[in-house]
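Recap from last week: sequence in, structure out.
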Amino acid sequence: MANSSSFLKITVIHFCLIVFLVRPSLDVSAEDLSNREYIIGPDDVIEIQVWDNEDLNRTVEITQEGDFAFPLIGRVHAEGLSVYELGNLIKKRLADGYIIKPQISVSVIEYNSKKVFVLGEVQNPGSYAIKRKWHLIELISEAGGFTDKAGRIITIVRPKSTNKNGEIEANTRGEKNKIIMIDLGEFKADLSGGNIFVENGDSIFVKPIPPIKRIFVSGQVNKPGELEWKKGLTVRQAISLAGGPTNMAAQKRIAIIRIENNGKENEIKARMDDLVKPDDIIKVPERYF
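Predicted structure tokens:
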């Protein structure tokens, strides 16, 4: 369990280092760039500033119809536009008979239209707003990272009915959600093969480490005790893993003690090639002489 948890934490740290090292130098910060490219949707709250015209500055919430009201130019349909495109639209409409060469600044102050949900073995499960193109590992890091119980398997449930802007629409065709299974153990050092980016409406489930299944070997073996069960394990292999039989072992009277579905204990005479089931007890008795 500890090894798996350490592996997952190293995966997150490794990814964050790669993002930091390869991020290009830009005139604007990564946050500013992502803000400009963000596609606006209902319930987002945006701030609009018109330079040298403070009376026009507004903080507005996008309606469910995808628009908002602005002085002089009336209703503005913002849904589906990037922040950059919306700024140009307002600038163009204000320049049409109202303000000479207006300078506009538009920014998102509340991201409410696009969300993903992170559940399971993360430190801070819940919903997270999508502000930009987000890698799965970045999202896990945003959620506080993995817990000590986290396994390597992540499941993404993705709504089928989304439009080209990544917005969820009514599913009228009965399409099934897309299920994406990811094994973090398959991520390579450069994260190739692991370039999974989250989308609006995704539900991300970080599964716990599956419980280890056990068997028990008792009696005349050199190392009696508990062993990890694996599919296809035979009686012979289990006894070998337990150090092999002692000189006093009655190998022809080996038995398997198995708990049946009704809860009753059943003792079965075993052959060496018999398959062992989880929680079986292999009993190697002592020979009579």
